[in-house]
Design brief:
heterodimer, A: 297 residues, MetI-like fold, globular, B: 309 residues, two-stranded antiparallel ribbon, 16 helices
């Protein structure tokens, strides 16, 4: 439709575009600020205030070098990778299986199982009873506290279910005639056809576990060795406890204090960049995911 | 049901025989949900107990409604309730409409590449972890922080650490929520807008409706179901969201405005180990949450015929 622009329209367009530009800048500025700070001279950084638009002093990678020498950060990074990979691989696998089960028309348990699962979406015991269950299972301060509870998400099962249900029955029936068992039907024939749903679930799981800190703070209070990166970052950024985290750099505490601020920014970048780099490529999956379920958070 | 046999024990037996592996796969999933979802549901009896971990649920002493009485009669009850409602109401009445407006404004942008870039950039903050976001908020709101500088210049407030003054917490929390969630929250509405049939716009254009009128009389009614669905969902989760961010941001000097029910449960239950009391508070929280969900769902069904449950 080609229309002649009315003056009011022109004004609106100018305002609208300006607003979008300003908001986009607001979204980028904090991340830009951290990136530039992470490349700055630590002495100048100590006394800096306001947004850091460009690296202060000579560009330096000293902060990143220090991060690479900090055992707790490296360990946290490794732990995060373990939790992310495990929860994504195993969690998605179980979700696919569960979604398959509740979408089988010829399976008598289909509906009871679905109701059984949906019920947990509506009612939950809450934090303390869950904590007590994990405690009774001996999961407190154990890595498994982040690898078993929460591995299945009822909502994702409903997403898988609707994916499988959209496939015509003929696929399964012809495979059955060829003598394929349920496992073959599920993984070899049907799962590739619902790749998009699986990808969406896997993406959400990766980001959620990469950024997750709350369960770890509850269930791993004393197991520093098992902490994910986010908890290490919490010590640095929120509790401002740089001494404990950075002690492993081995230097005199004066040196640590001096560069601590710089290291903080570097850790943020190291911890955030993977998700931000991958995200533009994965964006379409997130958009699909939101549209599929109207999820928020 | 494809098999023609009558529903009887025999039917189950037959079903088991042909779907043996499906039954086998069901077992671990059922076990998981029983242990991590259903057992905790029964665990809410702790709310009526003087729960001692050593004695367990079966051995702990029942105290009736003592925990609830302690909560309702406690000095913090009103504060907690007020903070929970104010913080969530701000999100609902300010943050939520803004995501819709943002989606509508984006829809008015004709330059494809510009629109795409703004979308990509605006979704980004959502993928930054809450720990990092909270760290940035703490930095920017400190005595010499960027936000503090700006607020001193614009509003002439006294220079101080903004997160130490209870006056500012609601604003800081709301603005940072908007910053982080505006783009991401709009995705749902943007896709709803794309689903509005083009013929409707064309018809409206023929009738002489300008862009503004079309937005008001075509787009908005077209995405109403999406808006209502989101609204119901938000009402339902209203009591439970946002707690993790507040846990990272607050400190004892701003409990007065920042402490909400879910953060209180965490502090009382996990840190102070008052399990019975914290379970009671948590139970109260989820009962209120479920009630809100049911009420908003019923109201919306009456008013617009749209419901989710």
């Amino acid at each position: 439709m080609v229309e002649k622009l009315k003056p009011s329209r022109v004004v609106f367009n100018i305002l609208n575009y300006s607003f979008m530009i300003v908001f986009a800048f607001l979204c980028i500025i904090p991340i830009w600020h951290v990136t530039m700070a992470s490349l700055s001279n630590p002495r100048l950084l100590m006394s800096a205030s306001g947004i850091i638009w460009k690296p202060l002093g000579e560009v330096t990678f000293d902060g990143y070098k220090l991060v690479l020498q900090t055992a707790s950060v490296l360990k946290g990074y490794g732990n995060t990778i373990i939790y992310v990979v495990w929860n994504t691989v195993v969690g998605t696998l179980i979700t696919v299986i569960a979604g398959y089960l509740v979408s089988r028309k010829s399976f008598k348990l289909k509906n009871p199982l679905m109701i059984f699962i949906l019920f947990t979406m509506m009612f939950s015991g809450g934090l303390i009873p869950s904590y007590q269950v994990n405690r009774a299972l001996g999961l407190i301060n154990s890595r498994w506290a982040l690898m078993i509870p929460g591995i299945i998400n009822a909502f994702y099962i409903t997403m898988m279910k609707s994916g499988f249900e959209q496939l015509p029955d003929s696929y399964e029936e012809s495979a059955k005639l060829d003598g394929a068992g349920p496992m073959t039907i599920m993984f070899k024939i049907l799962a590739p056809l619902v790749k998009a749903n699986i990808a969406v679930i896997a993406m959400f799981t990766v980001v959620m576990h990469w950024n997750s800190w709350y369960p770890a703070s509850i269930y791993l209070p004393a197991a520093r060795d098992a902490w994910p990166l986010q908890l290490i970052m919490r010590e640095l950024l929120i509790k401002n406890d740089t001494a404990t985290v950075l002690i492993a750099t081995g230097d005199a505490s004066g040196v640590v204090n001096y560069t601590a601020n710089l290291v903080k920014y570097c850790v943020v970048i190291v911890g955030t960049l993977p998700v931000l780099m991958a995200y533009p490529f994965a964006q379409k999956y997130f958009v699909t995911g939101v549209t599929l379920g109207g999820v928020k958070g | 049901m494809k098999n023609s046999k009558p529903k009887s024990n025999n039917g189950w037996k037959h079903d088991f025989a042909i779907n043996k592996s499906l039954y086998l796969l069901t077992v671990p999933i059922v076990v998981y949900f029983i242990i991590f979802c259903y057992v905790p549901m029964f665990g809410v009896v702790m709310a009526f107990q003087d729960y001692k971990p050593a004695r367990g649920i079966l051995g702990s002493r029942f105290v009736g409604f003592k925990n609830f009485a302690a909560f309702f009669g406690g000095p913090n009850f009103f504060t907690l309730l007020r903070n929970t409602f104010v913080i969530n109401a701000l999100g609902l009445f300010v943050g939520f409409p803004l995501t819709i407006i943002f989606a509508l404004l984006l829809n008015e942008i004709r330059l494809k590449w510009f629109k795409k870039s703004v979308q990509t950039i605006s979704y980004m903050p959502y993928f930054v972890s809450m720990v990092v976001i909270a760290g940035l908020i703490i930095e920017f709101c400190s005595t010499n922080g960027v936000v503090t500088n700006l607020a001193v210049k614009l509003f002439g407030i006294q220079r101080e650490n903004l997160l130490q003054n209870p006056k500012y917490f609601w604003t800081i929390n709301l603005l940072s929520d908007i910053w982080q969630g505006l783009g991401y929250g709009s995705i749902f509405f943007i896709s709803a807008i794309t689903a509005v049939p083009t013929e409707q716009y064309e018809a409206a254009a023929i009738d002489g409706a300008g862009r503004w009128k079309r937005c008001l009389h075509v787009t908005l009614p077209g995405i109403m179901p999406a808006i209502v669905t989101m609204l119901i969902l938000r009402c339902g989760t209203m009591m439970s969201v946002g707690g993790d961010k507040i846990l990272l941001l607050y400190n004892s000097s701003i409990y007065e405005t920042a402490d909400v029910i879910s953060t209180n449960v965490q502090r009382m239950g996990i840190e102070n180990m008052q399990y019975g009391y914290a379970t009671a508070v948590g139970l109260f929280n989820s009962v209120v949450g479920t009630t809100l969900l049911v009420i908003s769902n019923t109201l919306s069904k009456k008013a617009t015929d749209i419901g989710i449950v």
